[in-house]
């Protein structure tokens, strides 16, 4: 990434106590092009998902100075500086006091910064965010390169969800009643039922009590029930497909986990599945001959009784 060093940026560098004597005001006059040739960040190693049960997380920044001397390596989180390494300073390691973030200075240097996890007892820890590494070379070039990457905090489930209660076959009008249970995760997984490729109406589902307080009161399971009456249109081609999908909310690189079950239409209903449903007009046509017959019979009876009455 090519940048321009402004006069203000150079003045700020020079205002460090250890650099006051070496500061040349002429450097603050003309901006210089950064990363023209030479300095380059080759790799930024930031875990896309960090396990909150880890004691620490190390973020690495691998770079090539192109033969130049290192001025500083600066790490930031969500745009705010958290750690700076300056080899030319009497105090090379400079952590910043950031709420929810604790740095292990013994494991942080010009190549990496190590963040302490929640289990270290330091207090509330918030590791999730966007982390950036900026590498700058010394005068006179003052080249700079910058890279950033996002890190989420989660414990992904290690297995697909489990679907229970599904029968191998159903008849039209019968009740489909199943339960789906996710694997242990943090945050709790979100479960979704998908019937024949379409998401099932949430009104037909019910949240059930999952298993919590496992592994340090962190990971837990999610359970979701589904109850619905099956109609003929659910058995397209004589079968239905039910999927239970598990996802982690708010996790950028989460991969959904699925379990799929297939049920067929009972043998006694197979003929119904192949026949198109009869419309209301077709049913009325079949009823017309019967209605006509009974109407004519009633008319004849009335006429016969009327003639007898007149003769009397």
Textual characterization of the structure:
The protein is built from three helices and 20 strands. It has 312 residues and is of the alpha+beta class. The protein folds into two domains: 4-153, Immunoglobulin-like (Sandwich); 162-274, Immunoglobulins (Immunoglobulin-like, Sandwich). The strands form five sheets. Strands 4-11-10-6-7-8 form a six-stranded mixed beta sheet, with no helix packed on it. Strands 13-20-19-15-16 form a five-stranded mixed beta sheet, with no helix packed on it. Strand 15 and strand 16 form a beta hairpin. The longest helix has 32 residues, at 280-311. It is elongated. It starts with a strand and ends with a helix.
Secondary structure: elements and pairs:
Elements: E1 4-5, H1 7-14, E2 32-33, E3 40-45, E4 49-50, E5 56-64, E6 70-77, E7 80-85, E8 93-95, E9 112-116, E10 129-137, E11 144-153, E12 162-164, E13 169-170, E14 175-181, E15 190-195, E16 198-199, E17 205-208, E18 223-229, E19 239-247, E20 257-265, H2 270-274, H3 280-311
Parallel strand pairs: 4-11, 13-20
Antiparallel strand pairs: 1-2, 3-5, 5-9, 6-7, 6-10, 7-8, 10-11, 12-14, 14-18, 15-16, 15-19, 17-18, 19-20
> Given the C-alpha coordinates, what overall shape results?
elongated
Tell me the strand percentage band.
35-45%
Q: Provide the CATH architecture of the largest domain.
A: Sandwich
- CATH fold field value of the largest domain: Immunoglobulin-like
Major beta sheet summary: 6 strands, mixed
Identify the CATH class of the largest domain.
Mainly Beta
Tell me the count of domains: 2
List SSEs in N-to-C order.
EHEEEEEEEEEEEEEEEEEEEHH
């Amino acid at each position: 990434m090519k940048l321009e060093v402004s006069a203000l940026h150079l003045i700020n560098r020079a205002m460090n106590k250890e650099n006051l004597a070496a500061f040349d005001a002429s450097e603050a006059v003309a901006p210089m092009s950064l990363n023209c040739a030479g300095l380059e960040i080759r790799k930024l190693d930031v875990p896309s998902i960090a396990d909150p049960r880890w004691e620490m997380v190390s973020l690495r920044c691998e770079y090539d100075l192109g033969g130049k001397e290192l001025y500083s390596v600066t790490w930031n989180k969500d745009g705010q500086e958290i750690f700076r390494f300056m080899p030319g300073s009497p105090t090379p390691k400079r952590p910043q006091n950031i709420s929810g973030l604790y740095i292990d200075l013994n494991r942080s240097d010009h190549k990496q910064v190590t963040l302490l996890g929640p289990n270290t007892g330091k207090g509330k820890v918030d590791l999730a965010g966007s982390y950036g590494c900026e590498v700058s070379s010394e005068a006179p070039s003052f080249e700079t390169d910058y890279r950033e990457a996002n890190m989420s905090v989660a414990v992904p489930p290690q297995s697909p969800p489990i679907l229970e209660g599904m029968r191998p076959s159903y008849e039209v009008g019968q009740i489909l009643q199943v339960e789906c249970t996710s694997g242990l995760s943090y945050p709790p997984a979100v479960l979704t039922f998908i019937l024949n490729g379409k998401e099932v109406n949430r009104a037909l589902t019910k949240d059930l009590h999952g298993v919590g307080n496992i592994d340090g009161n962190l990971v837990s399971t999610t359970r979701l029930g589904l109850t619905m009456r099956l109609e003929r249109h659910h058995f397209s081609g004589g079968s239905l497909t039910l999927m239970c999908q598990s996802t982690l909310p708010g996790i950028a690189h989460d991969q959904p986990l699925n379990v799929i079950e297939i049920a067929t239409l009972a043998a006694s209903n197979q003929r119904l599945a192949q026949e198109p449903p009869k419309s209301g007009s077709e049913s009325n046509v079949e009823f017309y001959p019967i209605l006509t017959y009974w109407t004519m019979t009633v008319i004849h009876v009335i006429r016969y009784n009327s003639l007898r009455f007149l003769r009397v």
